[in-house]
Amino acid sequence: MGPNGATAVAVGLWFLVTVSVAAGPDVAAPRRCILSHYRSLDPRALAAVKALRDRYEEETLSWRPRNCSFRPRRDPPRPSSCARLRLVARGLADAQAVLKSLQSPELFPGVPPTLELLAAAGRDVAACDSPRCHEATVIFNLVRLLTWDLRLVAHPGPCL
């Protein structure tokens, strides 16, 4: 990865961290949903991400023994893959966050036992997720995240 690509990636990550820290969890005021600037990415930044992913793929193919079953690139995650594991962990965490933030949880029967189940399942899933597995999943999904997912949400439409 060249210095320009590395700089672009570093600036992008710094921006994301700064925005998330500045917003904080206590911010209640609704924000405008403006993502149109993500419709296309700087080609140099995209090339840097692709180079990172490709180099990482070369290295991970040499791992012996394989400590997680990941499928690089665009293949959909298999039921027992690292990507599926991360997807489930994220879904469990999202469900917990939503249930914990309900303004009137007493109106929804079953919230406490559901939260207990989600917490237990989250701990179990986290115990199955090795650092290398997590690393592989994140890096292999960078290009899809930046070229497809981010582009989809950048098109005009309602942000609920």
TrEMBL record:
One example GO MF annotation: cytokine activity
UniProt keyword list: Antiviral defense, Cytokine, Secreted, Signal
GO biological process, one term: positive regulation of immune response
Cleavable signal peptide: 1-22
GO cellular component entries: extracellular space
Pfam family membership, one: IL28A
Compartments, record wording: Secreted
InterPro entries: IFN-lambda_sf (IPR038326), INF_lambda (IPR029177)
Keyword Secreted tagged: yes
Main localization category: secreted
Sequence similarity: Belongs to the lambda interferon family.
Protein name as catalogued: Interferon lambda 4
